[in-house]
Amino acid sequence: MGMSQRAKEGLWNGGQVLGYKSINKELIIVPQEAEIVKLIFQKFTDECWGTKRISNYLNSIGYRTKNGKAFSITAVSTIIKNPVYKGYIQYNQVINWEKERRNGKNPDYIICKGVHGAIIDEATWDKANSVAKQRATGTPRQYSGTFPLTGLAKCPECGTFMTSLYGAKRKDGTRKRCLRGIP
Q1: Is residue 92 exposed (0-12), middle (13-18) or buried (19+ Cβ within 10 Å)?
Q2: Which of 17, 34, 38, 130 has its CA 20 to 30 A from that of 28?
Q3: 154 and 129 in one domain?
Q4: 116/89 Cα distance (integer angstroms)
Q5: Do residues 39 and 129 both lie within one domain?
Q6: What span, in angstroms and rounded, lies between the C-alpha atoms of 57 and 158?
Q7: How far apart are CA 45 and CA 131, in angstroms?
Q8: Are residues 150 and 71 located together in one domain of the fold?
Q9: pLDDT of 44-89, one tens digit each?
Q10: Considering the entire predicted model, what is its pTM?
Q11: Looking at the structure, do residues 56 and 129 belong to the same domain, yes or no?
């Protein structure tokens, strides 16, 4: 109950988030990390880059996550969806995590204006999340195996890693495997 009350008052309950450091459970903006967050939103909304392209770009220029790891598609997507960057606190979004994992979504989670400073203005955050919803296909991956060149082949022009996919079914029922770059 204490953590719920803190969230309702706009106070941080702890944890690490890129762009901020937590001092006595108070979020303080870290300017160098805040620039990375701003860059992610700028590339996503203004330049129409996808999360994969953004993560590849951040890694290529040497940026790292809060934990010192390379950026992943999920890390970039999580940043875009996190309302902490527009100055809000979100709490209790998942229930029964031990048993339900991702299926234990709480429809009545807490989201309130926080007492911390925002890195991204609300209009930019709302635009980014609107774009993300428009781009979401809702279809899961059709192939869960691996391709031998995944993560090895790069585009000679832009340096983006090539991804593998299966083409449309042929008349004989087989599928052609091919590589494509995502600029």
Answers
A1: middle
A2: 130
A3: no
A4: 9
A5: yes
A6: 10
A7: 7
A8: no
A9: 999 989 999 999 999 999 999 999 999 999 999 999 998 889 988 8
A10: 0.68
A11: yes
Per DSSP, 73 falls in state: H
Nearest to 131 by CA among 77, 94, 73: 77
Whether pLDDT at 141 is above 90: no
Those residues whose C-beta lies under 8 Å from the C-beta of residue 141, and which sit 6 or more positions away, are none
Tokens at 36, concatenated: 């990375």
Please give the share of the chain, as a percent, with pLDDT higher than 70. Answer: 60
- Domain count of the fold of the chain: 2
CA–CA separation, 149 vs 15, rounded Å? 37
User: What was the pLDDT predicted at 31?
Assistant: 95
**Residue 40 sits in the same domain as residue 110:** yes
Closest CA to 89 of 111, 69, 74, 67: 111
